[in-house]
């Protein structure tokens, strides 16, 4: 399947923000309080940031027109600014303060942030997010990379180290948001704590889900959602924000910040692993002539069987709702048959139970 960055420039015409609660990350979110209008899509179909879908044209500039004032540690072309509020103590202080603040005050501070956001910076975020999603989609569909990463993340990567990597990336994202509202910071209408507060409201999964006991599941679920083309889950993930606004422009900003943050976090973690194994490093190849075929959750299951990764297969069943019964690959071979022929006795027992 041919992919191109040009094909990815029209997503966030999602004009609905839903109110998050205790639901699972990927469960359908049909709550009573909805902000905005219907989902609006360029082609009249439901859309997502998956490479088959597009980001909003109103927010996207051609890459050559985007001035990159700074960058994160992910591409290394520019020297990053010092991260604001990057220490664990300062973040915890803001988080604790947020918990005790009146909701109206929180929204007031975040609305102030939105008044100062630089649209050209948001455009560059979306362009970079497009490139990241394209690369993630290709990477997880190459060989058995998804299964190998999942095994590493579930069983081999120390939980504390996982949290440290996430915290590092969050610090970079806070830097990016601060740069986008530098006029507000300069005139002291916006504070660095306001930036952190805004991030906590938009990416409400931080820190409890992204850095907590279930962080491994959150990262893998998000990666699978971003890269495997499950559009309903993608929409739910990117639009699951609690924010009271009817301004289309503010909706664009909010959804753009959320998409950029989640995509950046997952991309940084995957690139860390790719660098660790010395294979599959990104080259941001956007050549229209390059051909590749995206893998589905079912394809990942057959990869897990071939590699003998029972824990990854269990993850796919329990978290991605994979049905192993009667599952067949493109050669019409069942998952059970592949497990038997590969000599994976534990997986055979798991499928049969």
Automatic annotation (TrEMBL):
It comes from the Eukaryota. InterPro entries: FAM220A (IPR040355), SIPAR (IPR029155). This is Uncharacterized protein. It comes from Paramuricea clavata (Red gorgonian).
